[in-house]
Amino acid sequence: MGSVSYFVLGLALFFGTHLFSTFRSRGPGNIREKMGYGPYMGLYSLVSIVALVLIVMGYGSLRNMIPVWDPPIWTRHIPLTLMLPSLILLVAAYAPTGYIKKAVKHPMLAAVKIWAFSHLCANGDLASIVLFGSFLAYAVIDRIVIKRRGDPTEGKSPAIMGDAISVIGGIAAYAGIVFWAHAALFGVPVLP
């Protein structure tokens, strides 16, 4: 199987699974209730991990192969700047409810939108546009659908501890990505 096949299959699996989850029934007797929370989330997580591995494998080989536009040099600073708030929001999604989570309501989707938008600004090849554009489109669609379900933090009192965890965890993740992980995982150093 070639790079394009890995990339396309990974995107199809990832977004197929996530769109199914976005639009699935939440009424009595829905699939998650029938399977049980643990098995449903286990299968969902397994498919998502396999899909992400396929996406990374395919994207790594396709990146920069088909240029669509040539981003100006200054656009490289956009992800470097926006990834810190994105990672703080990502951590906030899993931290106890703090003021950040309460204000944003869906910090994971906000983090994905910021990550995707910032990387679209700095990458002009077809694979990057497809990858980051897909994640941005999905996050927008999911946010619209979730908004109709209501505020997930409603009734939860925010605590400063949730914000402290979000900020410290986000800064630590940012440092790890900037100084090591981005180059190690994707072959592209963040800093020259």
Molecular structure report:
This protein has 192 residues and is mostly helical. The chain has 2 domains: 1-62; 64-192, no CATH class. Helix content is 74%, strand content 0%. The protein starts with a helix and ends in a 6-residue tail after the last helix. The model has no long low-confidence stretch (mean pLDDT 93).
What portion of residues is helical? over 70%
End-to-end span in angstroms? 34 Å
How many beta-strand segments? 0
What fraction of residues sit in β-strands?
Answer: under 5%
Structural class: mainly alpha
Instruction: Report mean pLDDT, rounded to a whole number.
Output: 93
What's the Cα radius of gyration?
18 Å
Number of domains: 2
- Please trace the helix and strand order, writing H or E for each element: HHHHHHHH
Identify the overall geometry: globular
**Uncertain parts:** none
Biggest sheet, in brief?
none
Q: How many helices does DSSP assign?
A: 8
Task: Give the key terms.
192 residues; mainly alpha; 2 domains
How would you summarize what this structure contains?
With 192 residues, the protein is an all-alpha fold. It contains 8 helices and no strands. Helix 4 runs antiparallel to helix 6.
Write the layout of secondary structure elements.
Elements: H1 3-23, H2 31-35, H3 37-62, H4 77-94, H5 99-104, H6 107-122, H7 126-149, H8 160-186
Helix pairs in contact: 1-3, 1-7, 4-6, 4-8, 6-7
